[in-house]
Amino acid sequence: MKDLNKLIEEAQQFELQAVTRRHFLKDCVAGIGGIALGSLLTSCNGWGQSKSAEKLDLNALNPLVPKPPHFPGKAKSVIYLHMAGAPSQLELFDYKPALQKLHNQPCPESLLAGKKFAFIRGIPKMLGPQATFKQYGASGAWVSDHLPHFSKVVDEVSFLKAVHTDQFNHGPAQLFMHTGSARLGRPSIGSWVTYGLGSENSNLPGFVVLTSGGKTPDAGKSVWGSGFLPSVYQGVQCRSKGDPVLHIADPEGMGRDMKRDLIDAINNVNKTEYDTFKDPETLSRIAQYEMAYKMQVAVPEVMDINNEPAYIHELYGTEPGKESFANNCLLARKLVEQGVRFVQLFDWGWDSHGTNPADSIDLGFKNKCREIDRPMTALIMDLKQRGLLEETLVVWGGEFGRTPMQENRDNSDMPFLGRDHHTDAYTIWMAGGGVRNGISYGQTDDIGFAGVEGRSSVHDVHATMLHFLGFDHEKFTYDFQGRPFRLTDVEGELIQAII
């Protein structure tokens, strides 16, 4: 009885607070938009007493409804393949025969002056390319023997050979590569894209994340977080092994009708809360409850690769039931085919320091290349044969590059061959979605140490990606803490050569 009286008192206090002058004035100043929205919703689908009338007009409240960009973009969706740990461009795409001639010679001190490295100390030795290169395709692109499958599709891609960053540690560099800032709190590029374009499939998340390699990126889930954008725009992590999403199945005894009634009741409470406080996170909560309900049916179907024909499994090298980069590439194709706006693949294990065989540039690195070569090639071929490549932007890269010098921690040789983190030059490639194919843009010096022509910053890469989707990166903003923010901050130029 005492608890009941307390609840009654709290309810009476809330009612009195709702009619105070201060509360009235607050609602008059801040709630006019909500009153207008409420009248529109009521006129279309009123909030009467019947059960059917109590249901929300979810299209009006859904933050993920499809929206037009600034101008017609070539790309409708993005598949971003991030090699977490930073693959060596000098063993893949940036052919430097002059570096081979310097192998095992002391590094010139002029290259070290004023530079910061993660681990190199003293005077390291130069490290020649641990791969054999040839030119392929009509474009004559240089590709190493580590990627025999990928060499067949080089005419479909554009290489950016002189990308640079200002972050030499994994966490900040990954944040910078995916959010435009090395500090926590900014939205990821996938969140920006779903915020700007919404989603074309109301039964699936607009932004899906798939991981492989056994670990998540060093920066954690912030690299697919929504930052200061409403949380409905953050990435939803799915799995290629086991249940695609944890707890996707209802508890025993909970039927779909019961779940529907439960969600309707919760959403009506949240709608009342939104009418009172106008917090966009409340709309996110409504949308996420609805999405979770729909995902229980849609996700298991789209995330099932068992029904793909045998030639597709052969093309990608997939193994159903396992967590692998190959499975994730096939899933990425299935997801964009179903209207998912942004698919982010993270493959961990590319940090080639030479501390052990698994992270050596001449042993473990080759194994990682074998894991990605076939599936990423298959992804481009599969998208093209389905007519999806023209409207799907595919991006591949890491968070920085690797040094042309051999790593020497504490000024002593490592047990295996390895390269340290390097900010001055690395390679990213793009394909589809309006990308001018068969292009190699940018050039590094004779040993691959620094860009000497066509340098591209991380902000330039972001500005160009947004352009392919139909956005002017300087006008694509979100107001936060009293000023407009954008993915490219106050920088960024379009890389015109690949458009």
UniProtKB/TrEMBL annotation:
Provide the protein name. Answer: DUF1501 domain-containing protein
Q: Which organism is it from?
A: Sphingobacterium paramultivorum
The signal peptide here is none
What Pfam families would the database entry show?
DUF1501
* Lineage top rank: taxon: Bacteria
What PROSITE patterns does the database record attribute to this sequence?
Answer: TAT
In terms of InterPro entries, this protein maps to: Alkaline_phosphatase_core_sf (IPR017850), DUF1501 (IPR010869), TAT_signal (IPR006311)
Q: Coiled-coil segments, which residues?
A: none
| The organism's taxonomic lineage, starting at the top | Bacteria, Pseudomonadati, Bacteroidota, Sphingobacteriia, Sphingobacteriales
